[in-house]
Amino acid sequence: MNSVQGLLAASVISIQNSCFVYPACQNCFSRLTLDSRRFNCLKCGCTGEAKDASYRYRLSLKIADTNDLFDITVFGSCLDPFFGVTAENLQRYIQDFNQLSGEANTESSTRVLVQAVEACFIGKRFIFGV
């Protein structure tokens, strides 16, 4: 799962999603289903209390090298240096911000975060392990 087959130097053309963190199973890293009290992993069957769910980064990008366009998804803690915090802490900051600002609609915090991620990644060149 984590073995790199090759390296690709490419520039980021666009961000493909606006949700950069997801609740992840600690066993298989699949997306958890959450309700107000519990989480459940549909892949491996792991369950627990919703407040104990772990979060992981997932950044979907459209990238281009000198010849081709690619859709690529970057997962996990390799994104910590770019965001400056773990996915767990970013999720906590987003929840706290929405709670403090009284936002019932999370569009404004999502929009600001997307703009920051676009400024950090779009037009920049990276080496991706694929």
TrEMBL record:
InterPro entries listed in its UniProt record: DDIAS, NA-bd_OB-fold, Rep_factor-A_C
Pfam families membership = Rep_fac-A_C
Kindly list the biological process annotations in GO that this record carries.
Answer: negative regulation of intrinsic apoptotic signaling pathway in response to DNA damage
Q: Which GO terms describe its cellular component?
A: cytoplasm; nucleus
Q: Which residues form the Replication factor A C-terminal domain?
A: 9-95
Q: Which Gene3D superfamilies match?
A: Nucleic acid-binding proteins (2.40.50.140)
> Taxonomically, which superkingdom?
Eukaryota
Q: Supply the name of the protein.
A: DDIAS protein
User: Can you name the source organism?
Assistant: Leucopsar rothschildi
